[in-house]
Amino acid sequence: MVDQYEVVVVGGGIVGATVACGLARAGISVALLNKDDPLRTWPLGDCDLRVSALTQASVNIMQALGAWSGIVQRGVSPYRDMRVYDGDSNGFLHFDSAETHFQELGFIVENRVIIAALWDLFEHSDRSALICADPVVSIAAHPLGRQVTLQSGKSIKTQLVIAADGQHSRLRRQMGISVQGWPYHQHGLVTTVSTAKSHQRTAWQRFLEQGPLAFLPLHNGQSSIVWTLGSASAKAYTECPEADFLAALTMASDGLLGEITAVGARASFPLNFQHANSYTAEAFALVGDAAHTMHPLAGQGANAGLLDAAAMIELLAQAKERRRPLGGQQVLRRYERWRKGDNLVMMTTMDLLKRMYGIHDQPFVQLRSLGMNMINNSRLLKQMFNQYAMGLRSGLPTLAAK
Ligand SMILES: Cc1cc2nc3c(=O)[nH]c(=O)nc-3n(C[C@H](O)[C@H](O)[C@H](O)COP(=O)(O)OP(=O)(O)OC[C@H]3O[C@@H](n4cnc5c(N)ncnc54)[C@H](O)[C@@H]3O)c2cc1C
To answer: Rounded to an integer, what distance in angstroms lies between the CA atom of residue 172 and that of residue 58?
Structure first.
């Protein structure tokens, strides 16, 4: 049997689920396909390994779609300050929400919380379908636009396929879209820890020899860790006995939050820079990690993907209103022009920061430390950094701008 929807979104992660909710809200019939059926409930007090620091722009998107209340109900951790230390020098940066128009700099949210809230919202939309545990295996041209075939043999016809199937996107490969990039030969080790001192709703980050170590404050008093390490060290620290890990982490943190007293499950993810050479093809578009993957040192990957989602929602809602084809070149070209440049600037900034903190030769370390302390003492420069990091820049999609 062949079903038909105006748009098919492949991949129900943070970005794909956001696009699907936004399109359904705009009265577009949409099928959201995900290869598995993730948990939507979990024991009280339990925290996921994967968290995202959501910017104000991303929160605006979630609020505008009506997903934010479901996220807050499940638990969010606002952070009001961010303290950044250069492990090689006395370089220091302190960002304080009191210096902005907002009560907080952003929110730490478990990825599963965002996904569960979006999926619940999507399921309550009209003319929408959530199809799980049935991965897309092929995508073909069709007079209407595209036809996707699922593992079960089921087929869906649509005007437009939006691929939100992550950095190893199968659909991107099937459409013959190439990528540029390089591996960082680093892994991001993630876990949840308890610390002797309170995190004070502050995001703490220390740049070390192998990469940054971040402590992100969680609502249950614990901190979520993202520790960038060379791949061999990441493997060793992921597998070593708990006591050895606690001791190494306490030492690496330089006692910022006192002794680390307990640690949850550990996992690590390879880090790379990857950018699709094209974001679109005939009746086809890429969003989120399927289009771009960046270093997580400033927690911008999901936020950038959410801006793709908001731009796509805005353009397709306009096309629907004007009775234009949703998979038409006009819409897709505008999407690519809007998002590709902005993503490239963000990815390049993350890459430069990664390289800048990877240099440990003294004259450069002194210069870097001087630069950090100069920014820290300049209200104007800090305001500019804050605005950019909070996602509040010009040219934002309407949903993100509020
Ligand atoms: C260590 C680390 C820390 C990070 N911290 C932050 C942070 O603080 N803030 C931030 O903004 N970003 C952060 N990021 C980046 C962020 O996690 C990603 O950018 C984001 O999760 C990408 O979301 P996505 O929806 O595009 O892709 P994904 O999360 O990869 O989702 C892809 C979805 O597609 C589905 N899928 C795949 N193939 C198929 C198929 N054939 N058929 C159907 N479904 C399919 C998968 O099941 C999955 O649900 C971090 C990344 C790392 C590695």
So the answer is: 25
Q: What CATH number has the domain bearing residue 138?
A: 3.50.50.60
CA angle 210–212–218, rounded 5-degree value? 140
**Which atom of ligand 1 is found nearest the CA of 166?**
30
Beta strands in 29-133 (DSSP E): 30-34, 51-54, 77-79, 81-86, 92-96, 106-110, 128-132
Q: What is the pLDDT of residues 123-164, one digit of tens each?
A: 999 888 999 999 999 999 999 999 999 999 999 999 999 999
**381 domain residue, yes or no:** no
Supply the range of the domain harboring residue 65: 2-79+107-181+272-359
Residue 35, ligand 1, Cβ within 6 A:
yes
Residue 298 inside a domain? The answer is yes
Number of domains the chain contains: 1
Whether 336 is in a domain gets the answer yes
- Please give the Cα distance from 252 to 227 (Å, whole number): 10
- Regarding the beta carbon of 10 and ligand 1, being less than 6 Å apart is answered yes
Q: For residue 350, is pLDDT > 80? A: yes
Residue 387 included in any domain: no
pTM: 0.96
pLDDT in tens, 293-331: 999 999 999 999 999 999 999 999 999 999 999 999 999
Specify the pLDDT at position 2.
Answer: 67
In the reported structure, the alpha carbon of residue 16 is separated from the centroid of ligand 1 by a whole-number distance in angstroms of 9
Kindly list the distances between the CA atom of residue 319 and the CA atoms of 28, 288, 313, in Å, as whole numbers in the listed order.
Answer: 10, 21, 10
Helix H or strand E encompassing 71: helix 68-74
Task: Give the per-residue SS3 of 74-100.
Answer: HCCEEECEEEEEECCCCCEEEEEHHHC
Atom number of ligand 1 nearest to Cα 135: 42
Percent of the chain residues past pLDDT 90, beyond the cut: 90
